[in-house]
Protein: Sel1 repeat family protein
Amino acid sequence: MKKLQILLVLFLFISYGALASETKVQSDMDLQVAEPGALIPSLRVSAENGNAEAQYSLGTIYKQGLGVEISDIRALFWYKKAADQGLAKAQNNLAFMYQNGLGTVADPYEAFKYYKLAADQDYALAKYNLGLMYKNGEGTDKNPSSAINYFVEAGNQGVLDAYLNLGIMYFFGDGVEQDRLIAADWFSKAATESNPEAQYYLGLMSEHGDGLTKDYVAAIYFYTQAATQGHVLAMYNLGIMYATGSGTKPDNVQAANWFTKAAEAGNADAQYNIGVMYDVGGGVSKDTAKAIEWYIKAAEQGSVDAQYNLAIKYLDGEGTEKNINKAIYWFTKASEQGDQDAKAYLDGLLEK
Structure:
């Protein structure tokens, strides 16, 4: 009988390909007033008289539902009024509405048009959004060179998510020649205001010595910074480092803490690992019932090792009632993913 998969053996390395994450298009909704609904009559008078700022403010009130019912249609109407008068922030928000089909049918070409109009007025957020459209070929031909130019300009004007996207482009070689050294430089710029995604990549690169000097202590630092802001993969990787004693003394209590946080956020590998820790009493009190709860969550997300361990539990009746049908079900799931031990168990059970 194959023993239960003991902690972490299969999860020390995470595929870079699974980590790509670009920051999404952003709109500018900066209106903050105590009683916005009370302003609507006076704003409407000004807006109808052609005041672009009033038109923009009305658009934002309806988009955010500030003292009124949210109405993307009305927001679009007023943003367009202001945008067609040349107000850059209205052009950016109107583009966002067109891009996401808010209050209208999605139209990436109109979105590109209005982002470009705002960017031409040196509006930083529009430059960032335009960079994303060039990067992804949305509403225009894909053009990595233009994307880079707009990201650099936006980043230099304070939109640090632009630096993050530059880092991701060079990290993966997305439209540019892959260069982890350049990627590390852009991630460092993005991380100056504690961007968790940038901190996560800096941790990953420090851990693997890829674009940065291999430094487990630095990796733990960056992962911790990202994890405390809710970055799930950083939580998971911290769990790995504490469990294996990489850059720190082995600490199963800390490992269990971070695996639990990542597991609660839905990470299947963390769910499997915390399940094993409850199974063997590592870093937490041994609790087979809790182990099974986590195995179920991981198994349902496709974790082959969780599926196998769960099948063993049902087969042996450990921590749960013995249930051959459920054991067969989970051995089948695991064997379908190529687990030969699960297949051997399954064949034996089906022969009976």
Q: What stands out?
A: Residues 36-48 form the longest helix (13 residues). The chain is about 65% helix and 0% strand. Confidence is low (pLDDT under 50) at residues 1-21. The CA atoms of residues 160 and 190 lie 5 Å apart.
